[in-house]
Specification:
Elements: H1 18-37, E1 41-42, E2 48-50, H2 51-57, E3 67-69, E4 75-78, H3 83-91, E5 101-110, E6 122-131, H4 136-152, E7 158-164, H5 165-175, H6 179-190, H7 194-202, H8 208-216, E8 221-222, H9 224-230, H10 237-256, E9 262-265, E10 278-284, E11 292-296, E12 310-316, H11 317-322, E13 333-338, H12 343-355, E14 359-364, H13 370-379, E15 382-386
Parallel strand pairs: 1-5, 7-9, 13-14, 13-15
Antiparallel strand pairs: 2-4, 3-4, 5-6, 6-12, 7-10, 8-9, 10-11, 11-12
Helix pairs in contact: 1-4, 4-10, 5-10, 6-7, 9-10
Length: 392
């Protein structure tokens, strides 16, 4: 018989104690207010989805899906992302809604992890999706809102790196004939395995000039100058079109006043394989994992029968909470201990403090020892004892 696991938890999940929950809620509320002010309306989707619809369409690898069976033997999945469920909603219950649609969400996401992965199997995401807008302005709106999101979350120093999926795909296709090799290089770019990337390039049976271009891709980071410098080296219409799109995007971002937060990276590969245009990630200084990620996915909704251009991003609330020092302090806490006959006085005192945004706990007690009172004062900013008439 299997030994009970007792207090152990499954790999990749965690408990959130009151202070951590408070920080998450503060960030969530700030982001909700921001998204609403930009015209994004919140939607909710089920935690469980059918594998044959959302599971198959999702960009998350099959072995990372949590699967279970319903009573009819149909395979379900715990939602592994929110973009795919929202695509399903827009193509079904919102199919008569006029595009473009601006939707936001807040949800817990589930992705299976290996024991040694050190990543979360359940985490919280908050994000937005702009459905039905294929323009450069739609991309610029996403990036400007991403910048604003990190600002209201009080992330002190950050950069958002922008790449272009179509450019990278065309760039590799024009220089490497074998799709197998292109896929391998993409995996190494995806995993940030630049050493492996360079080693593979060194073994390719191509001209030295092509190898130089492939290696130089890793250094193509910066502003508009990087994009303009790459234009003369384009070998296809797709590469030129993608670079011109990024140049137009840079101009649009100037109007938003956010160019100081943006860096272009022509070697950036998005985390989701359904991206078709821009892809981007937001990083805080001295933090290795992205705080947000997103991109354009113009082909995803077609899988659900309603073709439409789309772009969006999601924020990792768990990581934001770790990096938001301004949000670490909870409201001042007060405990009011009262004798039964002093109930009215105690409740009036509690109401007065709550109006000043204190967190107030009231507790009836006939007597408190000095030791108990000392322990309580170590947990609260203020402890008030309201005595009854007989104690006065």
């Amino acid at each position: 018989m299997t030994k009970p696991l007792g207090f152990e938890k499954p790999v990749g999940v965690r408990d959130y104690l009151p202070e951590s929950v408070y920080k998450l809620r503060v960030i969530e509320q700030r982001l909700s207010s921001l998204f609403n002010s930009w015209g994004y309306e919140e939607t909710m989707t089920p935690t469980l989805e059918y594998y044959d619809t959302v599971g198959v369409a999702s960009a998350i690898a099959d072995h990372r899906l949590f699967k279970l069976l319903d009573t009819h033997g149909r395979t379900l999945v715990l939602r592994p992302d929110m973009t795919t469920p929202i695509a399903r909603v827009v193509a079904s219950v919102m199919q008569r809604e006029v595009l473009p649609l601006r939707l936001s969400y807040h949800a817990n996401i589930f992705r299976a992890q290996e024991n040694e992965a050190g990543r979360s199997a359940e985490f919280f995401e908050k994000g937005v999706e702009l459905i039905g807008d294929a323009s450069v302005d739609g991309d610029a709106e996403m990036l400007a809102l991403a910048v604003a999101s990190l600002q209201v979350s009080r992330v002190s120093s950050f950069k958002i790196t922008v790449g272009h999926e179509a450019f990278l795909t065309a760039f590799l296709r024009e220089r490497i004939a074998e799709s197998r090799v292109r896929d391998a290089l993409k995996r190494e770019l995806h995993d940030r395995d630049y050493v492996g990337y360079r080693q593979r390039v060194a073994t390719l049976p191509v001209e030295e000039e092509t190898k130089r271009e492939l290696n130089a891709l890793l250094l193509q980071r910066g502003g508009e100058d990087v994009l303009r410098a790459q234009l003369p080296h384009c070998r296809s219409r797709e590469e030129t079109s993608a670079l011109n799109h990024l140049l137009a995007l840079a101009q649009a971002l100037e109007a938003y006043g956010v160019t100081s937060f943006i860096t272009f990276d022509l070697g950036l590969l998005g985390k989701m394989n359904y991206y078709t245009g821009i892809c981007f990630e937001g990083y805080a200084e001295q933090h290795g994992f992205p705080l947000l990620s997103g991109g354009r996915y113009d082909a995803l909704l077609q899988k659900f029968g309603r073709p439409a251009a789309a772009v969006g991003f999601s924020l990792k609330l768990d990581r934001l909470a770790e990096l938001s020092p301004v949000l670490t302090s909870m409201p001042r806490r007060c405990l009011i201990v009262y004798a039964p006959e002093a109930r009215m006085t105690a409740l009036a005192a509690a109401a007065a403090r709550r109006e000043k945004e204190w967190q107030v706990t009231v507790q009836v007690s006939t007597a408190l020892s000095p030791t108990a009172l000392k322990q309580l004062r170590s947990r609260y900013d203020e402890v008030v004892v309201v005595k009854g008439e007989a104690d006065e």
